[in-house]
Amino acid sequence: MKSDLDPLMAARELVAIVITGGEHQNTPRAYLCNGVDIHGGMVVKRQGSEPALIVSSMEIEEAAKSDLTVYSYDDLDWAQIYKDAEGDQKKAFPVFWGRVLEKFAIPPGKIGLYGTGDLNVWVERARQLSEMYPDNPIVGETGMTLFDQAFVTKDAGEIHILREVADKTCDVLRATWDYIARHRAEGETVVKADGAPLTIGDVKRFVRRELMDRDLEDTDMIFAQGRDAGFPHSRGSANMPLQLGQPIVFDLFPRQLGGGYYHDCTRTWSIGYATEAVQATYNQVMTAFQTALDSYAEPGQPTHTMQDAVLDYYEAGGHPTIRSKPGTSEGYVHGLGHGVGLNIHERPSLSHLAKEDIFQKGNFITIEPGLYYPDRGLGVRVEDSFFIDEAGALVSLTTFHKELVLPLRGS
Amino acid sequence: MKSDLDPLMAARELVAIVITGGEHQNTPRAYLCNGVDIHGGMVVKRQGSEPALIVSSMEIEEAAKSDLTVYSYDDLDWAQIYKDAEGDQKKAFPVFWGRVLEKFAIPPGKIGLYGTGDLNVWVERARQLSEMYPDNPIVGETGMTLFDQAFVTKDAGEIHILREVADKTCDVLRATWDYIARHRAEGETVVKADGAPLTIGDVKRFVRRELMDRDLEDTDMIFAQGRDAGFPHSRGSANMPLQLGQPIVFDLFPRQLGGGYYHDCTRTWSIGYATEAVQATYNQVMTAFQTALDSYAEPGQPTHTMQDAVLDYYEAGGHPTIRSKPGTSEGYVHGLGHGVGLNIHERPSLSHLAKEDIFQKGNFITIEPGLYYPDRGLGVRVEDSFFIDEAGALVSLTTFHKELVLPLRGS
């Protein structure tokens, strides 16, 4: 969590961190700006000091909402530097960088570069600035980065927000269930009042509106039916009519409007009735889900033990898995879960290969076993997002029910 | 445009380019994937060859829509490599990189790294991979990058899409004008049928729904009234009721749902009536707008000449500008315009300092003069997006009218 940043910097011997990038969604920047989505701008944090924010003078008013100390680029003479460089960014930026080092009195030592941005520009800039200012080499890391580590646990303020987003997301699941239920079938096809088929595109439009009414935004939900449900990341075809008795994998992972915290959950629905094959597969996935929960004992436990338990269960049932058959596209083809926060995928990873990750108080993680047989027109996944609370208990924030069969009551 | 990529690579002596990054919006990746938004994945293009796409096996079905040759990470032995490295990404990735070089038969020479991603990871990875595979150093650039240059001009397929997005955006402007007009005033406050004030939040919700109904998404529109309109990038306060006679800067820059091409346009509205000060300022901005258009002659002309003409006009009228007073937050405080495409801000830049940018056939650019006096509760901006067509003419794709006063007809 955020209070870990100084020790995490110390462990890496970083005298400062700089978070930069363009106008893109930039989770480390949003994190340090207390959730305020700045369009551009740079955060500078010296070890042991509060972070400060440098933005274009046009963004000053928005930036002030971050509660950080805010400077405009022109407070660091950008306009003059840029003019002196005759509008050549390539010349101007290194001079500006010198002003940053000076303004924040950065002592000699390594500076960690973070943020989401243009890889091309920053790979070259980091090299160039390290050469020009040899007292302050700019460094990156591979593997588990400083922010990966900080994001692993959430503080009380973050959990409060995550719970709100979870509740709203569950309201949308409920509204979507009811929306579909209000329709009727003609033969095996779900139809609207006027007899036109209800399509996946119709449902997604409904879902996006419901999200928006709650100040959430879709980030490319999955609503995949039949064979498509057999590919874990197939988004579903907008023009496909909803059919009775087909498995539908509905994976909803919205975030706060304009960038912010996510919720992540999946339900599998079968409209009207479920075939024997779908019901049997669903039962196994629900058993896998319960197996996962039962395998959890306490914080400190390696996360891979939970995936191991699920792999054991599936393999005993004769399903290929990514452990028994790496790269398989049938059976159980993905990891059991992952952290969620300002990013949809964070650490810890619930993978049999992630040997170093452990459960910790403050984790916010998904548990999402599935089974996929596209050649049988079949895919099932069930996913809740869980918080590990102060007592070390695993608490689901996805409160929506897990019924498989969605009965129609339209007439 | 896309057909320029090989010459642009040759000019930089790049034997290959690799576009990578995480799950973020990644415009170079989307560009090469023909607009398909892949969640993760790497594009590899050897000079003179078609690009190929490497994705997780779970994304194969979605990736196929790109029309590129698609490989899964496991086609390059990722699962085995990751297992051999005991789940340590830090060890696994460099081995995988060797497979990429082999699979695509990359000859000795520089590889350009592009894409939007985690700066921290790639700054270190680029260093490490260049060291391990010295025949293929990984390089970046500052200044005008390869993709900056490619994005400067749009091909016929892109213009077709940009026109569609423009038309839909104008439909939303029209719908929003009509939506506000359907209300009535109580005193100076715009109110709904039930007498509650119509707020900026209400208008933004309406706009987002209208965008969504047209498969567009908001990327943080500006709807700023009164003093807020005086800060070019103030988003506006959701709880603020709409007032008669206040300038409202409405800057709408949506993109295709899920990531894609943008449109960018601004109107300034004053509900019911305009004060003399607002009307006078508006007239000057409209004259500046016409001055900009009149200054355009033909492709090849430096873009700064257009900004120079507008600066001359404003300065003659006694307004401070970023040329006469760099860093000013009053008067004319920003550049005249910018390219638009898969990014909201691209080259060319219409700045008096961008001496190298020229107008070209295939440009898609904004022209957006404004005047800002926050201390007088005042800000005005008018913006259309223009295409430079095959005949070299500047054609506005923002067809919505430029009336200042929005009369209410609710009763």
Structure description:
The structure is a homodimer. The first copy, chain A, is of the alpha+beta class and about 400 residues long. Chain A folds into two domains: about 1-145, Creatinase/prolidase N-terminal domain (Creatine Amidinohydrolase, Chain A, domain 1), CATH 3.40.350.10; about 150-405, Creatinase/methionine aminopeptidase superfamily (Creatine Amidinohydrolase, Alpha-Beta Complex), CATH 3.90.230. Chain A has helices spanning about 5-10, 25-30, 60-65, 80-85, 90-105, 120-130, 145-150, 155-180, 200-215, 275-295, 305-315; strands at about 15-20, 40-45, 50-55, 70, 110-115, 115-120, 140, 185, 190, 215, 220-225, 245-250, 255, 265-270, 335-340, 345-350, 365, 370-375, 380, 385-390, 395, 405. A six-stranded mixed β-sheet of chain A has the order 4-3-2-1-5-7. A four-stranded mixed β-sheet of chain A has the order 11-12-14-22. A three-stranded antiparallel β-sheet of chain A has the order 17-20-21. The termini of chain A are far apart. The model of chain A has no long low-confidence stretch (mean pLDDT about 95). At the A-B interface, helix 3, helix 4, helix 5, strand 5 and strand 6 of A face helix 3, helix 4, helix 5, strand 5 and strand 6 of B. Strand 6 (about 115-120) of chain A pairs antiparallel with strand 6 (about 115-120) of chain B, so a sheet runs across the interface.
